[in-house]
Amino acid sequence: MEDRTNEYESSTWRQWHTPVILAIAVVLLVSNIYFYWDHHQLQQRLRRIQNSVESDLQTLRENTASSAQTTAKTLEELRTQLDDERGRAMQAANQAAQNARRHADDLAAKIQTEHAKAQEQVASALGEVKEVASTRIAEVASHVNTVDTQVAQARSELDKTVAELRSVRGDLGVESGLIATNAKELAALRELGERNYVEFNLAKTNKPQRVGAINVVLRKADPKRSRFTVDVIADDKKVEKKDRTINEPVQFYVSRARQPYELVVNEVQKDRIVGYLAVPKVETASR
Fold first, then answer.
1. What is the pLDDT of residues 63-96, one digit of tens each?
2. CATH of span 165-280
3. So where are the chain's domains?
């Protein structure tokens, strides 16, 4: 019984095992064929790539050789051009140097000629200047002598005029300075410089008229008697000087000076007086 069973199992195993083996064998065979074909295709592809690379390398070698020849030829041409340019540049530089030396020589000769002409002109001008200077010096010396003579005459006349001036007592009883009776004597007083002098020509009016640092109002003018009456306004104070005569120092004090101001009338006309105001040189600042 067991023998039959074993025989049956053995027969059954052979029935399904054989197809499996055949199938595996077919798969292996197909796989080997595929791998062989793929390997063959890969070798062909690698061969084509190698041929292409070798062809490219050959082309590159040829192009490189051609490019090297072209570059060498170009470099040679450039070297030739550079030598030519260097030669032309040196020639131009030599020519420029020669021209510069020639121009410098011409300029030096021209400068020397102009310098000689200038020296001649300067010498001639100096001679003319010396001649003119001698003439002018003589003229100036003569003019100085004339001026000195005129100054001496003016000083003599001034001394004479000053000697003729007189000093009188003013209306305040103070001894006045020298009194001028006309324009010539007033000019002599100015030359002495003892006081400052302000001339005036006042008409009769009710309004104060400015004379130096004071105001004056002419109230009355009597040409027949050579007398006049004025109001003197100084330091905001008004003082009447009544019935005064010509060439009489009309004296009054102001806060700025220790000496009195002096109003001197040299001429009395109809409704007008002409004279000057004598102001002390030294004054103090007003408060």
1. 878 877 888 888 888 888 888 888 887 888 788 7
2. 2.60.98
3. 165-280
